[in-house]
Write a structure and sequence with these properties.
5-stranded mixed beta sheet; 47% helix; 12 strands; 5-stranded antiparallel beta sheet; alpha+beta
């Protein structure tokens, strides 16, 4: 009898020591952790969890459903249930409703003798900085991809102008005055090509992945795009009008230029064979955003193809010169700055592209 009593005291002492060690761990860890039992009752949490999720001592003993709003992750109850029923760890990256990212680990608390899960320990590790850095690198990669495509795409207009002028120079001009005019136009095209390449290649991202937008005048950029497309405009006899309700925007100048260039180039390129292109470029405030709209009277786009045109290398008219990356570039540039692009079109009647920028 004396020996049994001594054994019980030893076991009780060991249990107290283990409990003290657990308490000491919970009180000193800097990681937010929760202990929830099999009945979904919150039994214990670390001081870090108290701070992160604004818990109090009164929350101990409450059903997890009653404190789930503090944790601000909508499927946490379903995740706890899954681990209790399967006795398998669950690890996932989560974003709470206050937009903070965590690495969440839910570990089953298993009673070995009974081989059953009696609850879970949930750990939250703040990975918000890491996620933001990864997003920054993803955006940087997309931006460089857009630049590569833009350089190959947008310089075609100035080069086409230069080729046309060189062809004229190879003939015998009627006068010295004509010769000087052509050389001046060629110099202007060279200058435009240089500015285009400089704009597209000017990438200066800091470690915050933030490039300060600049104040861009829509009319100036439209004139730049028209100058780059001068030969195509003259060849097609395109009539281009502007209705500028919003004159300026805070945005990347090279991106605005590339967007307008691509939309204007497409409006000319996909004209109806028997009609001169009539194109309207307008800006206005719509849905509390700045909207740039480019409308034409061209071939139009079938309704079931209107989203496909934004995919890379998509070409609906193989008889028209092109690479199929222009609208892919435009969409990437717009979305990388938090905007969106929409299309309205009817076959045989024309197309309107609406680009929405954050105001």
């Amino acid at each position: 009898m004396i020996k049994a009593s001594s054994d019980n005291k030893g076991k009780f002492k060991k249990l107290i020591e283990l409990n003290d060690e657990l308490e000491n761990y919970f009180n000193n860890t800097i990681i937010p952790q929760l202990f929830v039992d099999a009945n979904m009752i919150l039994r214990k949490f670390t001081p870090a969890a108290m701070k992160h999720f604004k818990l109090s001592a009164d929350d101990v003993g409450r059903h997890i459903d009653e404190v789930s709003n503090n944790i601000r992750f909508p499927t946490i109850i379903e995740n706890i249930t899954e681990v209790i029923e399967s006795s398998k760890d669950l690890e996932k990256e989560i974003q709470t409703t206050d937009k903070v990212w965590y690495q969440m680990n839910i570990l089953p608390y298993i009673i070995r003798k009974e081989n059953r899960t009696n609850g879970v320990i949930i750990t939250f590790i703040d990975i918000n900085d890491r996620i933001q850095i990864l997003k920054g690198y993803e955006k940087l990669s997309r931006d460089y991809e857009n630049i590569i495509h833009s350089i190959s795409h947008d310089i075609k207009g100035p080069i086409s102008n230069m080729e046309g002028l060189i062809r004229i120079l190879k003939t015998i001009p009627e006068s010295e005055e004509d010769n000087k005019l052509i050389i001046d136009m060629l110099s202007e095209s060279v200058g435009n090509l240089r500015r285009t390449v400089e704009d597209l290649a000017d990438v200066n991202y800091d470690m915050e992945f933030a490039k300060e937008p600049e104040r861009v005048n829509f009319e100036n950029v439209i004139e730049d795009a028209k100058l780059a497309l001068r030969d195509k405009i003259a060849e097609s006899n395109a009539k281009i009008s502007t209705q500028i309700g919003v004159t300026e925007i805070n945005f990347s100048r090279k991106n605005i230029r590339s967007i307008i260039y691509n939309l204007l180039s497409n409006a000319i390129k996909y004209r109806k064979p028997d009609s001169e292109p009539v194109i309207t470029i307008s800006t206005e405030i719509a849905e509390e955003q700045i909207m740039l709209k480019v409308s034409d009277n061209g071939l139009g786009i079938a309704e079931d193809k209107q989203q496909d045109i934004f995919n890379r290398y998509t070409r609906l008219h193989t008889d028209v010169e092109g690479t199929g990356v222009g609208l892919f570039i435009v969409k990437g540039m717009v979305e990388s700055m938090g905007g969106r692009i929409e299309v309205e079109s009817k076959e045989g009647e024309g197309t309107s592209f609406m680009v929405y920028f954050n105001n």
